[in-house]
Design brief:
By secondary structure, this protein is α/β, with parallel strands linked by helices. The chain has an 8-stranded mixed beta sheet with strand order 2-9-8-7-6-3-4-5, with helices on both faces. The protein has a 4-stranded antiparallel beta sheet with strand order 10-11-14-13. Helix 4 packs parallel to helix 5 and helix 11 packs antiparallel against helix 12.
């Protein structure tokens, strides 16, 4: 090309959760049956929405309005409904309908939230990092994502002192991101920690982003805690959606709750740029938005959330118990979301370990692929080749810790038990090899 047309941040666009799929397809084509533990899709793993919810969607399909464009920021009745829910939270920030902005899933929202930041303005995010956020933040700036540590020896909670230090000594940081419940660790942050982080943002005149896609999927004694309830007067964006909550991941329907926009003129101008960007694509998908008031407003919805939380709580206990007594790893029972992290203790992994693979073609391909890769990716490849179980290495989440992420989504009890036991046995065999 006469001119270089590649964006400076293009090399930072990486999504390990999906990239591992390409490797798994290759291994599958060589004869290994595959068990997908790489992605948080409840539908793929066998969950079905309740019939009453499905009937509401079917009725909306027959409404001609659901087939047309909606307002740029979203269906007005839905935005008004969601604003009222925000305003009902005790002691929280009050919003208007204009403070609810819809996107085609949170992936779309994430791309615009980072993509329309000034390039020099950085957002400090957690490590391990969720790839959609970390890649988008790095791509917009053209530099590696800036991160703070989540502490595996303290329940994967944020290292607040690390946040304070990073913010103090890096004046390019304009915002702080947190995910609670967290992906990939399943940690849920207590109120005192998120309020302390908000205080840091207030002191240094930063804005905050909270990815709350799992905010209603909490268990293990953890309360639901929305950003609007703890952010105080700090300008902020809370990211919400229905993909994990109904669940309807194929709907690609997410929204922002814009909090305290009026408290900072520069932040307000930035939010207006997000709406301007939505105008260029007209609007987000109408039908899923229309489903929100009749479904979330239904008297059966709280029981739906409670039943799912109880199910995931039981599975989280099974997952943690499967690794009890395994001296090679640290596994903390998650308190929310669909995931848990298996972290290898320092010094456990090396480049001589392996697993027996019976299929000669698969064995040869795995041995080719493990050359020069991070230690946890090496284990993940051997696990895939030997058992067909596909997990995501922590190195794919911009983590300095070796390990991998698994899900608690499998609906078949016997198969779920087999998955956890097989992974546990593979760890013991691999470490001892």
């Amino acid at each position: 090309m006469r001119r270089n047309i590649v964006h400076e941040g293009a090399a930072n666009l990486s999504y390990a959760i999906r990239e591992i799929v390409a490797v798994a397809y290759e291994i599958r084509d060589l004869g290994q049956a595959i068990t997908w533990e790489n992605i948080g899709d409840p539908i793929e793993k066998g969950e079905r929405v309740p019939e009453w919810m499905s009937l509401i969607i079917k009725e909306l399909v027959d409404d001609p309005v659901s087939w047309g464009y909606c307002d740029t920021a979203g269906v007005p009745a839905t935005r008004n409904f969601l604003a009222e829910l925000v305003n009902q939270r005790p002691g929280g920030v009050q919003v208007s309908t204009d403070d609810i902005i819809f996107f085609n899933g949170l992936g779309d929202a994430v791309a615009k939230v980072y993509g329309f930041l000034r390039r020099e303005a950085r957002v400090l995010g957690p490590s391990p990092a969720y790839s959609t956020h970390s890649s988008a933040e790095a791509a917009h700036s053209g530099y590696n994502h800036v991160t703070y540590e989540l502490d595996p020896y303290n329940g994967w909670l944020p290292d607040v002192d690390d946040i304070r230090k990073k913010v103090k000594y890096n004046d390019s940081i304009a915002g702080i991101l947190l995910l609670s419940p967290d992906n990939p660790t399943g940690a849920v942050y207590p109120r005192e920690i998120v309020e302390e982080i908000a205080a840091i943002a207030r002191e240094h005149r930063l804005f905050m982003i909270a990815d709350e896609i799992y905010v209603h999927i909490v268990y293990n004694g953890n309360p639901r805690l929305h950003m609007s309830e703890w952010i105080g007067d700090v300008p902020a964006l809370a990211m919400r959606g229905i993909s994990k909550e109904y669940p309807w991941p194929g709907s690609r329907c997410g929204w922002l709750e814009v909090l305290n926009k009026h408290r900072d003129a520069n932040f307000a101008e930035y939010v207006e740029s997000l709406i301007a960007a939505k105008r260029l694509e007209v609007c987000s998908t109408t039908l899923p938005q229309m489903s929100i008031p009749p479904i979330i407003g239904d008297a059966r919805y709280p029981a739906h959330l409670a039943a799912r939380a109880a199910t995931f709580d039981a599975r989280a206990g099974e997952a943690a118990a499967a690794f009890d007594g395994c001296d090679s790893v640290i596994v903390i029972k998650p308190g929310g979301a669909f995931y848990f992290t298996v972290m290898f203790k320092p010094g456990v992994l090396n480049d001589r370990q392996s697993l027996p693979i019976q299929n000669a073609a698969v064995r040869q391909r795995i041995e080719d692929m493990v050359q020069g890769v991070p230690p946890d990716r090496r284990f993940v490849y051997y696990l895939m080749g030997a058992t067909g179980i596909v997990v995501v290495p922590l190195s794919g989440f911009q983590s300095s810790h070796d390990g991998f992420r698994m899900t608690i989504l499998e609906t078949d009890d016997a198969r779920r038990t087999w998955i956890y036991q097989t992974v546990r046995e593979a760890i013991d065999t691999y470490v001892a090899s």
